[in-house]
Amino acid sequence: MKSKVTTLWDYTKYQLPAEYTRWRVHDDEIQHRLEAIAKSHAQEIDVNSVETYDSVVCRSESNAAQWNKENLLIFPGRGIAPAVLENAVLGTKVEDSVTANIDGMQINLTVLRIVRRQPMTIGDDMIALEQIEGVTTVADFIRWYRDTTEKERREKLIKGAAGHIQSLLLQNSQLEIDQKEAHAFCQDMVDCQFKSMGGMDNVSLVMLDEDVLNPTEAGVKKKLLEMRLESYPMYVLNTWIVEKMAGLDAETVCADGWKLISEMNSDLKTEDEVRQFAGDSLPKEFAIGNEASRFLEQYVEQFMEA
């Protein structure tokens, strides 16, 4: 490869932000989750005084027909009814009467019923309703939530942190791009992408042409090439990571690139089938990108919360 990294940003001096390293589930998060479950199993109960988010049934009387109703539902705090009505019923009790004005129209409200959603008591009975296999008690739930959430969160954070470092490397490093090499590499991907996506029969491809009224194959491929060339520096950086930082042979890594594409597309079972579909450049890009990510994931793992 003629393209290369001439100056590599010193990523070893960079401190990852906390949001990329904190993966532990703390007690307040579990409590919040339990309270959310309790709300999801809430029951409606009749109460005597209106609070925010209650459901209030009123009889409304007014000279304006739209506000003259036997049963008017008001949900204070939810912004469904005019604010003046929601505010008027707050603090009232059953059989209380209040007056509100909307655009000069007087509305008399009489509270008929007040309903509140009462969260279920947090306990084993509540957990049983969730029907989680092997989880029947609050203690089971806490253990299960930690085990499942922490593992998944840690894996996502490692990938996210690696991607963050990778982006910073591209932004802050100096690269020397051989334009002829870049065009040849990207043109191969463009030709295969155009063919595999149905060419000019694919509406989404046709819309890429800057001349939307008279799209042509050349116009579409020109745009595709521009898009591919924008991502080529990342391929150069990833190749540098694989060779200079991970100490691997890029050609050896690329040799199995077709397998990665085959794993994503079950219709492509052999190397020849993959090559016909994806060409030579795309399997290389996949393989190099995958190996570079693996190296950076191993690097950032040391910074994860203990």
Order of helices and strands: EHEEEHEEHHEHHHHHHH
Helical region count? 11
Overall shape: elongated
Strand content: 5-15%
Portion of residues within helices:
40-55%
Major sheet description? 5 strands, antiparallel
Mean pLDDT: 92
Low-pLDDT residue intervals, each spanning 5 or more residues: none
Report the span from N to C terminus: 40 Å
Q: What is the radius of gyration computed over CA atoms, rounded to a whole number of angstroms?
A: 31 Å
Task: Describe the model.
With 306 residues, the protein is α+β, with helices and mostly antiparallel strands. Strand 5 (97-102) and strand 6 (105-118) form a beta hairpin. 51% of the residues lie in helices and 15% in strands.
List the helices and strands and how they pair.
Elements: E1 4-7, H1 27-40, E2 43-46, E3 55-62, E4 69-74, H2 83-89, E5 97-102, E6 105-118, H3 124-129, H4 138-172, E7 174-176, H5 179-196, H6 203-206, H7 217-245, H8 250-255, H9 257-264, H10 271-278, H11 281-300
Antiparallel strand pairs: 1-7, 2-6, 3-4, 3-6, 5-6
Helix pairs in contact: 4-11, 5-7, 7-11, 9-10, 9-11
